[in-house]
């Protein structure tokens, strides 16, 4: 049976670019390393900026996902052209053991919205380090309530035990697809310039 152009296009991997942003040491690099290379490293090396690529299949569609692991932010970090990334979606990571890191994702989201001049961008909120239950400062409900307010998706993860790491990236793809479904066909695949 011959393959039509449309079917071929449907099977071609879609390129999706994702940036991980959050406070220092919340586990952004650990999440990416667990997702891409299935490893967890206990030692901490502050990130400057790295990118990784991984193929995944979601709802029968192949994706080539380019992931930008960014340097940890604090309230004084300048969010400007230095961090300029062409991305489709943002994974905002906090640690469930740090209230401050939870508050930081609000600061980062405001910077993204200011920078893009929009009131909504595809975001997934991720509360990492759930294996450290005794040190919790942010409840699951806090994360869910924030996601409801921001109209985005959220989940909790542990990069250490590999809990929900794949799911966090799948939710990001889902959120991006939700947004690209709402734009005309010829605009699909275009990126938001951050
Ligand atoms: N227990 C536990 N430790 C974690 C988890 N994820 C990361 N860590 C540890 O937390 C520390 C910081 O992890 P990184 O992945 O380097 O954090 P980061 O957010 O990339 O840090 P920056 O580069 O400063 O932005 C490291 O010592 C990790 O081993 C987790 O899920 N559970």
From TrEMBL:
Encoding gene, per UniProt annotation: RHB1_1
Keyword vocabulary terms for this entry: GTP-binding, Hydrolase, Lipoprotein, Magnesium, Membrane, Metal-binding, Methylation, Nucleotide-binding, Prenylation
Gene Ontology terms describing biological process: signal transduction
A single GO molecular function term of this UniProt record: GTPase activity
GO CC terms, sorted: endomembrane system; membrane
Entry protein name: GTP-binding protein
Catalysis: reaction(s): GTP + H2O = GDP + phosphate + H(+)
UniProt cross-references to InterPro entries, sorted A to Z: P-loop_NTPase, Small_GTP-bd, Small_GTPase, Small_GTPase_Ras-type
Membrane topology term: Lipid-anchor
Species of the source: Modicella reniformis
Protein's cellular compartments: Endomembrane system
């Amino acid at each position: 049976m011959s393959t039509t152009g449309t079917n071929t296009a449907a099977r071609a991997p879609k390129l999706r670019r994702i940036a991980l942003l959050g406070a220092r040491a919340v586990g952004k690099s650990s999440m990416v390393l667990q997702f891409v290379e299935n490893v967890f490293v206990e030692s901490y090396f502050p990130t400057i900026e790295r990118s990784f690529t991984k193929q995944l299949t979601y709802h029968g569609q192949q994706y080539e996902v380019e992931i930008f692991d960014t340097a940890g932010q604090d309230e004084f970090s300048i969010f400007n052209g230095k961090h300029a990334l062409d991305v489709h979606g943002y994974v905002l990571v906090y640690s469930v053991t740090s209230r401050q890191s939870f508050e930081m994702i609000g600061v980062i989201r405001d910077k993204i919205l200011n920078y893009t001049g929009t009131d909504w961008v595809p975001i997934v909120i991720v509360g990492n380090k759930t294996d450290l239950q005794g040190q919790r400062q942010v409840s699951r409900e806090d994360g869910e309530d924030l996601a409801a307010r921001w109209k985005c998706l959220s989940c909790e993860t542990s990069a250490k035990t590999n809990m929900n790491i794949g799911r966090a990236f799948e939710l990001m793809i889902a959120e991006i697809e939700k947004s690209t479904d709402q734009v005309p066909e010829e605009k699909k695949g275009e990126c938001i310039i951050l």
